TrEMBL record:
The keyword Transmembrane helix applies. This is ABC transporter ATP-binding protein. It is found in: Cell membrane. The chain crosses the membrane at residues 70-89, 144-165, 171-191, 255-274, 286-307. It comes from Micromonospora parva. The lineage of its organism: Bacteria, Bacillati, Actinomycetota, Actinomycetes, Micromonosporales. InterPro entries: ABC1_TM_dom, ABC1_TM_sf, ABC_transporter-like_ATP-bd, ABC_transporter-like_CS, P-loop_NTPase, Type_1_exporter. Residues 36-315 form the ABC transmembrane type-1 domain. It comes from the Bacteria.
Amino acid sequence: MPPQIPHPDPGTPDTRGPMRYLWWLVRCQPWRVLRGSLLGTAWMIGLSARPYLIARAVDDGLRTGDTRALALWVAAIVVAGVGLSYLGIMRHRTMTFIREDAKARSAEVLLRHLSRIGAVLPRRVGAGEVSTIGGSDIDWTAQVLTLTGPGVGAVVAYGVIAVVLWSISPMLAFCVLVGVPVVGLVVGPLLRRLERAESVYRRQQGALTARSGDIVAGLRVLAGVGGRDLFARRYAARSQELRAEGYRVGAVNSWIDAATVAIPGLFLAAVVWLTARMAVTGDVTIGELVAVYGYVATLIVPVWFLLEGSHQLIRGRVAARRIADLLNVTPDDVGGPGRRWPDSTPEARRPDQTPEARRPEARRPGSVPEARRPPGPAAPDGPADLHDPVTGLTVRAGSLTGVAVDDPATAVALADRLGRYVVSGVTWGGVPLRDVALDEVRARILVADHDSYLFAGTLRDILGAGADDDDERIGAALRTASAQDVVDALRAGLDTPIDARARTLSGGQRQRLRLARALHREPEVLILIDPTSAVDAHTEARIAERLRTARAGRTTVLIATSPLLLGRADLVAHVSAGRVTGTGSHTDLFDSDPAYRHLVARGSEEAYR
């Protein structure tokens, strides 16, 4: 049977708890799970057939000297071995498909959800946590599905062997029926202890992974300010704590692994000792002694699967709980009609990502195709003023507005409100922004952070250019961002592959590419947060001049404290202590507002007089 390709829609997971999530993975492939259960059961029951055949060969062939009967029973043993081999191969193959399907389905669900929650993710979950969940937790969750095949077969085989032993000796059957639950009682406390230790370990592992990612991302800065050794020591200390926690998990694991091997062996020895005494007294035949040994030895396999399955279930529950918690992270309630989250069909893509919306004539303000507009209060048909009642800021339509904020956190919060990433009272052309369909807002208002993520791909991909975009329009965006030299320095130009975060480029080059990417989108409203903080003054002056020309007639908000940028704005608003305290040209504010002068001059007022 060829492996099934996961459906483009992985389905809607049940995130009400870890066991419900695991059960959802089972329900997504019922026929394959049923086939795995049947094959696992047939394989384990088949294991108990060989001791019976060996017993018949001993009693009917060896003890009686009947060569013909011995040959027949030996042939039956060979045939049974071949059949068991085939069942074992098919069982393992089917269970591999089940686990791989569960991995792919969990990965698709997580990727879809992470793309949905967007900007809220960094505020709720650390990058290391997401990395750990997307890696090992998905794998541990899929491993639990082994219980649906060999696990079911182990329970059935346990019952079948108990019935067979009852036909030989009720006392032996009683020992088996009582002994296996006792094994579970012995291992149970270890499993519960493992679950607690595993939960702590995985949480600390996610935190340490996040810290390592932060250190690597800021290694140049740390080296420049002399903080590399300090962070290295802190990371080493956290690593030692994680190692100690790992030792605790390993200690419990070692006891469980030892019990998984030792307890079934001791159980086998006890039953064989009891059967040997019965053979001496004549209660069972030699063949039945051999059969009982074979049955109990065979019973070790399902007992081992049950113990191993319980071990996997504990780890899987911890992993599934972490996956469910991440899937339960929801976007901030930004009010109004929500986005119709796209899956994978072309009809479900965002309006601004469809081929129609990418055409030049579709880039005019309010150009989202009417048929694709989600329901909700109508957004302004054309350029309109944005007003933020929290700060009292009004952004005039079609103007280049500079906003100088004395607190970086206030600046980011302002951008979040204007871009409708949080609930607010911002109005757009008199219409509450929270009541406009979210797809409409995302298609027409773009918030560009100076440190936004750069995905791996060609430079053309990074800029968000499609196959229908001509190089002239791409070049215009690069020129405005003063980033053409970045392209010229690459061996294949726009088609040069760039790694994730563009680590091979300098900080200033990355920032200019981010600006070019935002300009290439040509949004109706563009909100830029410190777009030139990592470039030199000469480059910043060029960008300021070109940005004013490129965005002429379109609404642009520059949230920055750079006098070179603010000096090119049509209107500058000074936000202090969370409120607009003054508006006017950069020169007017610089002359009349000491606080503004101190903010933008960075303590060197004389240099800007």
